[in-house]
Amino acid sequence: MTTARRGSFDGDDYFMGVASLAAQQSKDPVTQVGACIEKNNVILGTGYNRMPRNCSHFSWGKSETDPLKNKHSYVCHAEMIAICNKNSADVKDSTMYVTLFPCNECAKLIVENGIKEVVYQSYKDKPSTDASKLIFDAAGVKYR
C-alpha cells in the first residue's frame, strides 16, 4: 500500500503561508499585512493592506501631522479586505490567519462577522492591540 507523502504543511502553516503571500501584494513601503479566512480547510477570503479601490494616489506617508496626508486616514486593513472578499461564504465560526495582530477596529469587524479564532504571526504592543485583546476576550474569540 502506498502511503501519503510526509513533510507537507499542516493547516496552520498553510493558511499562514497564504496570508504571508497576500501580504506581498501590499504597496505599503513600511508594513505589509496579509490575512486569510479559513473554515473547514477551505479558504473563504484573503486580503492585504491597501488603499481603497480607485484611490491609489493617496500618500503612504505616516509621519504627516495633517490627517489628510497620512496613510492611516485611508488604508484598508488586510482583515477588512479579507472579510469583504469572502464572496457569499459565511465566515461565522471560521479562523482568520493574519501576519500582524489586528487593531481594535479590525477586532470589531472580526467579532461582528462571527470569526471564532485569530492566528497571528507577529504582534506590535500598542493601545489598539490592547483594546483588541479586550474585545476578543469579551466576545470569546480565541487568539494565538
TrEMBL record:
GO terms for molecular function: dCMP deaminase activity; zinc ion binding. SUPFAM superfamilies: Cytidine deaminase-like (SSF53927). Residues 10-144 form the CMP/dCMP-type deaminase domain. Belongs to the cytidine and deoxycytidylate deaminase family. The active site is at E79 (proton donor). It comes from the Eukaryota. The lineage of its organism: Eukaryota, Metazoa, Ecdysozoa, Arthropoda, Hexapoda. This is Probable deoxycytidylate deaminase. Zn(2+) binds at H77, C103, C106. Pfam families: dCMP_cyt_deam_1. It catalyses: dCMP + H2O + H(+) = dUMP + NH4(+). GO terms for cellular component: cytoplasm. CDD domains: deoxycytidylate_deaminase. Supplies the nucleotide substrate for thymidylate synthetase.
